[in-house]
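Request: Mind sharing a record?
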Amino acid sequence: MTGADPRVVVIGAGIGGLAAALRLAHRGCAVTVLEAAAGPGGKMRVVPSAAGPVDAGPTVLTFRPVFDALMQEVGARLEDHVALTPLDILARHFWEDGTVLDLMADHEASCVEIESVFGTRAGAEFRRFSARAERLLDAFEGPMLATAAPRRAALAARVLSEPGLIAAMAPGRSLAGLLDGAFSEPRLAQLFGRYATYVGGLPQRVPALLSLIAAGEARGVWAVAGGMHRLVAALRDLAAARGARFRFGTPARRIVLQGGRVAAVETADGAVPADIVVFNGDPRALAAGLLGPAVRPAVPRAAVEPRSLSAHVLAFAATPRGRALAYHNVFFSAAPGAEFGPLDRGEAPVDATLYLCAQDRAGPPPAGPERFEVIRNAPPLPGGDLEFEQCQRLVFHRFRDFGLTFDPLPGPAALTGPAGFDALFPASLGSLYGRSPHGLTAGLKRPGARTPVPGLYLAGGGA
């Protein structure tokens, strides 16, 4: 950046856009954030309920050092702006045969739990799997996760510096293939295969390398008091205190170039001059021309297609009965193939694993209705949508099979499916994670933070 107070326009007030706005405002830039919605958050959104705002996107904070570093960079502390509760139980898992298994924040406690439920052999297999996952995360966190521009050469150099990583990566094998060999207990293979969906993929399609996701979660999970939107509000307030201006209900219509570089962003109210534009939307919107033909070359189609998974998300308040719930709960499908086979064909499955966040269970549950979020995996458009009545039946009949009921059942306003996500995040096709993670080099095919268009940058989950 050159000159005094560079003019920055951030398009989108999702978590990536808010982090960018905060950093740039702190460094003295004149930052304007344009957001089509009525408030900030993007996918980290909430919906109203009788018990208060309910998270309808991410439910917990992981990889906390990322947020600690952001706060430190701007002279703040995370714990001064949000109240965080570390979760002792990472997730409670239910199978239809009555088996219940808790994974714990304490690794040794998880080992003891697995041995108690599935036997000593399963415990030993879990120890080996966890050590492999932690080794992979240690190796690739720097050159892949924590860099704005991952490079094949840097990744190759890391592997060459520790040749034993090649065996740990299990090149040529899928995550499902690795798990089938790592666990003699199929329910554990099913449990850890679910981590592929954290990045919008299928265990039979993502590389075995993504077993490292389990190590990322094992490093800690924090609940944000009041919900994840409190973190959104904290970043917005910190950015505003440093001079960032927020314009909600103001969609960006076109990115204007002059002399081959960004010059302004057009809105219904006129053009906002810009030396730099940070786009915090789905990068596919640029490739599709939604921000004007001049910036279509910023993102090639191969960087945003094929698409990752979508979901059916229900956010509501109700009184639960029948099962002891943790904060994170997973109710597994009858068999992985019942869910992942249809998803692989682009169809909404009849029998799908259900994730249930009991948002008020970070402490003692309230006496009245509680806030819940249910996530059920779905393909992106065109094959992912279900009618509300069908979705409600598939979700709550399945909970009833596990002995869990809710009163009252949520209505249509509680549901967001692929078409709803596509409307909220234009050109996404409802995909929640950008480009598909399938294939060993899929991560390197995603668009980077810097685009070929001078002055245009990307932030957020699609980059």
Residues 309 and 379 are 5 Å apart (CA to CA). Residues 120-145 form the longest helix (26 residues).
